[in-house]
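Obj.: predict assembly geometry.
Materials: sequence records (below).
Method: joint structure prediction, all chains together.
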Amino acid sequence: MDTLLLSRIQFGANISFHILFPTITIALGWVLLFFKLRFKATGDMKWMESYRFWVKVFALSFAMGVVSGITMSFQFGTNWPGFMETVGNIAGPLLAYEVMTAFFLEAVFLGIMLFGFSKVPSWLHTTATFLVAFGTTMSAFWILVLNSWMHTPAGFEMRDGVAFATDWWAIIFNPSMPYRLVHMLLASGLTVAFLLAGISAFRYLIGDKCESVKATLRTGVTLGALLIPIQIFAGDMHGLNTLEHQPAKVAAMEGNWETGPNVPLVLFAIPNQETRSNDFEISIPNGASLILKHSADGVVPGLNDFVEEDGTIMHPRVAPVFYSFRVMVGVGMLMLVMSWAAVWFTRKKRGGIAGLPKPMLYGFVAMAFSGWVATLAGWYTTEIGRQPWLVTGVMDTASAVADVPAPLVASTLIAYLAIYVVLMFAYIGAIFYLARKAAKGESIKPRVPSSGGAAVSIPAE
Amino acid sequence: MDLFGDPAVWLPLVFAGLMGVSILIYVVLDGFDLGVGVLFPFAEDAEKDRMIASIGPFWDANETWLVLAIGLLLVAFPSAHGAILTALYLPVAIMLIGLILRGVAFEFRVKAPLKHKASWNNAFFIGSLMTSLSQGFMLGMYIMGLQYTWATFAFACVTAVFLTVGYSFIGACWLILKTEEKLQLKSVSWAKGGIWGLILGLGAISLASPLVSPRIFEKWFSFPEAILLVPLPIMSALLVGLLWAALRKLPTKDDSWAWFPFVCSIVLFTLSFFGLAYSFYPYVVPEQITIYEAASAPESLFIILVGTVFVLPTIMGYTVLAYTVFRGKATELTYD
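Observations (raw structure tokens):
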């Protein structure tokens, strides 16, 4: 394998590993704030117990996100120097704003959020929780601005092969940004919804039927049921936006080779890039035309439009985009069925959480990390779908790669992969271990947050 | 933008300054918590918990300064970022793996099953050691102009060891401030052991950098600069003397002066940093690319600067808040 492919795999592996954890912390921060506010409103200890348990998961996920994120910021330089040399004038300020407005906010207030409960007034602890949640969301905002700009660049001009900013408003609110941001924030919400439901279901199944577990299970199920229809709608809108700005990606997602009307919706197929057709295709007639153009004879772009006269292929490899897209949609559908069924089973008449059939509880445990699968599949769809471009129409991926010897990249890649595999096992293992420990009734003292005796002289509520 | 003259001149200088401040803050802040990690094998198990407790609320924000520093290099001097990091490819990778190991070990050592705690303690130590050594190695390579020969490699290995000892020294000083009784006593003895590494390290770097580069030699030993610069080594020597005297007296009965070694070492780190910054200015890649050549477009730098002017004081403000909330002797870390 050459340096380019190895560097791509390495960056792909790092960013895939990294995104798993922000996907959890972005929404979990807000869920923790919800728990804290519920506690303040009702005084019910179950909310504080929920907070105490899930803040541990948050801390663990946050640490994983931070350390894998630092790796990213260095890889720009070690493996992809061409990226910053060409579009650094755009990407630089966006990244700088992410560090300054988000990273420090979350990192500093995390300490108070985790360990300050009995050291600061309750309102400051709540504020710290809010600021951490806000910080993670700001971080998502800036990085998605940059990522969206790479997909649909706007507000710049090229001078001597280097991008210069002309309109920051257009750069930040580039055409795909609103869609991508909403899609990702909802993905985070869904990931956390199913994590809450899955881990709570696990605790419930091993006999921990305390109020706190029921409350978090209900929170997870309800959150999932609320968000999934919105996500399906938002995903559809994002797809239409992609059709407008990156038709080659949509053609690969649909597995459509020839531009034309009455394009079928391919449910399953094995895309064959050699013959430029699909093998073993199962499809619904006119489906893709209906979804993308809202009429049966709507013209849908095909992959063959993106092959230049000299045979250079200017569309992504079809199979990974095609399959990832189906995995994402499939998991989404499963989420819809599971969360709505759970809402139905736990309605008041059936006695709430107790009404949930056992197989469904097992189902939720199995789906505890299903949000990860859907999120990764979605990112693979959009990122592989951008190839061969790094910044659409501006620079291709190959021109950004560093001239590092392939064996050197291979050795660091192996080291990263090894450590990621170990950490993944440790992470999932630790979460289930924390759940088992909590289920065993590790003494959770009914302590009320201190409002006096604070270490800082800030007026208590 | 043109208020202070040509923005293509003053903006790169401002950003080099900001980056320098970030690196300095990083080296001091993460220096002490990396140092605590390096000292881990010398402590007993109960002491390890207390040592972690002393850095637990801070380490995350400390590492963010590294992200800011590398981020500023990335955004303000993109071509230098690429040149430096590709030249340091392997040590950077080792540092990153070290940072990953120690960062997650913080969490796992208390959240994973108890039987794994010892392994995560080891991971914390090894991660801290890998990070410190690779940072020292990179410092050495940077001073040697990022050229790989047997001699520069050997020098970088020496700086790797000395920076690690330097970190463990400032880590020990932090522990003197944050702990009590037996652990505090131990920390004093660690600091006494570490101070030699610091002296040798400073000496090696001060001797080597003018010898490697005639330009740096010229900057330090020509008239009248030499006279103006004399206070720098004298102050450093004075501080080392004060530190040595203080460590012999510490800990005092009423725990007064426990802050002294830590503050002294911050000043010492700061002085050395200024010495290095003076040597290398105006180069960002030694002897190859100046900050003016590597700088991004002024309009891009300016938009970052606008944000920085507002955000940096805020960051300072809430960093102070965090250190105030968790001031005093380290207590057991709990979520309650």
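Conclusions so far: Chain B touches chain A through 67 residues (CB under 8 Å).
To do: check interface contacts against the pulldown list.
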